[in-house]
Amino acid sequence: MEFRISDTFTASLSKLTSQEQKAIKTTAFDLQMDPANPGMKFHKLDRAKDPNFWSVRVSSDIRIIVHKTSSSLLLTYVDHHDKAYKWAGKRKIERHPTTGAAQLVEIKETVEEVVIHRPVTAPLPIAEKPALFTDITDAELLAYGVPAEWIDDVRKVNEDTIFDVADRLPQEAAEALLDLATGNRPTVAHINEPEEDPFNHPDAQRRFRVLTNVEELERALDFPWEKWTVFLHPAQRQYVERGYSGSARISGTAGTGKTIVALHRAVFLARKNPSSIILLTTFSETLASALSTKLERLTGNEKSIAERITVRSIGAVGEDIYAENYDKPVYVNRKQLRAYLLEAATTVDNHRFTETFLYGEWTDIVDAWQLKDWEEYQDVPRLGRKTRIGGKQRETLWSIFELVRNRLSSELLVTKADIFAKGTKDLNATNNHPFDFVIVDESQDMGVPELRFLTALGSGRADSLFFTGDLGQRIFQIPFSWKSLGVDIRGRSHTLRINYRTSHQIRSHADRLLPASLSDVDGISEGRKGAISVFNGPEPEIVILKDVDEEIAKVSGWINERLDEGFQPHEIGVFVRSDVQVNRGSKAVSASGSSHNILSDNVETEAGSVSVGTMHLAKGLEFRAVVVMACDDEVLPLQERIENISDDADLEEVYNTERHLLYVACTRARVTVQCSASFLVSNCLS
Length: 686
Hints:
Strand content: 15-25%
Helix content: 25-40%
Number of helices: 25
Largest sheet: 6 strands, mixed
Distance between the termini: 57 Å
Shape: globular
Strand order of the largest sheet: 2-3-4-5-1-8
Radius of gyration: 28 Å
Structural class: alpha/beta
Number of strands: 24
């Protein structure tokens, strides 16, 4: 007998208390080990429309709803007795007549309306909005996976009611309707042959999964909210399992599952190539730690897979390669470098370059591109640098930078870019490939030295370089040409459009922080309008309070409201712009009576605690509810960044990346988000 689990089961499990979950897991394990055990208390649901629905007793009040046939047992739902029975009474599992996919279909209730005649004053007629799908045939709707009994309702929906119906349809049908409503033409669903198992259909596999051993079930139940560990969307799977003749990049807005694709790609390549060594990397140790945790949840007990996937930040990998051939590097720190630039500048007459401009030009151009002489600096494109400079000014600048280069060399000091440059040179010279495949997450924040180093690691081999990222979440690096560094992704660049993490309301509000389309330097565009969220939620709140104390009180009350609604403390995140405001967030959580966990570079959440951290640490995380506090003027954008601008032309870049940062923080929320400010509000919220 096959033992299956449904995504509706993991979703319902996550809403119950820890003690209830513990008892449910014990019963689920017993069911998997021996479903025919006489000790299992099955009860057939006689009033359910689906004759295969049964309940299994967990405790005096908790029931698991299972779908039981002679060949399989499927966990579909769990809740308190009355709620569980009510859920089962409104659903059935059936094979779709056109696609052949197994679907969990909500049964429509037929309600006879009793008309009572009484005299009323006729209201003014209100023009009803037009139905959206009048020109779509029944056959087309069926081909998109719409259940036959919902066809008439689908035809009646307009822009105000589409989510009311979409929320009650199988995912593939809801996605197709939302695609049509936003002007896109969805892909027709795969059609199974009549003799094929409906549970093996690609769309069925996104909601039903066969679990072959206790370890797989344990992994699914330990992380019920992170259902990507068990269920993978077909749109994601196609990019995970595809072969690429060169470098490839998967993009998409926040919540479309880019990191999930990166993780599954690493595991897929490890399984497909049993002797391969794979690198899963990103730009910071913080995100590498988060990736490592997620990979552990995905691989579970598959030690042979996990042992062949190295999860490190790209900086740590660069240092490892460097250490094989050189002594341990001694880095010049930012304060030292600024001092060296100022000292060198005092020896050169007739210039007006500020310390901030010199540091930016060194970091973004001279050091990033590893320019060693005047000829190289003379001709280099200054992409991302807004201030224009002429040939004579370049000569003056190089005379300053040359002094700094010589000083660093004489004092045996190096920069991160130097480490990557030497590693790149050694890899190219030896044709050494320490990794067979490299997967790069959050690639939009990789700089010139890192990408050049990654190019050497991949060395142009098929499938060797796989990137995931979103230009709208770029918060660290200035734009530059990937193609000029040997990474040509033309024809191998794909965009994920299905957002299953963030509600329609949160996504649409957050997208207003960014342009409708973003393009990289090589002209590859990432459109944001085509993205769709597949579920509804409350409207995001923006609250402006008279002072910090009132803001703390407001946020603490908001947290308590979420807890009263059944949210667990670890499902709530509080984010602020910088370390200076972290205490403000901590006070708000404490005022609510909850314990809090200050996020560190390990970005580990704690059960029973609300997470508090900076917006930069929000990357890679996900919460059901998020508060973004201290969205004040002079905090967002950070006043320090504004004051350090040497040219008005650079102001645009500061505002862009600060909006990107707010976008990242807001889109960590799955269900609900609140942004707050005290007295003077940031213009980023406008």
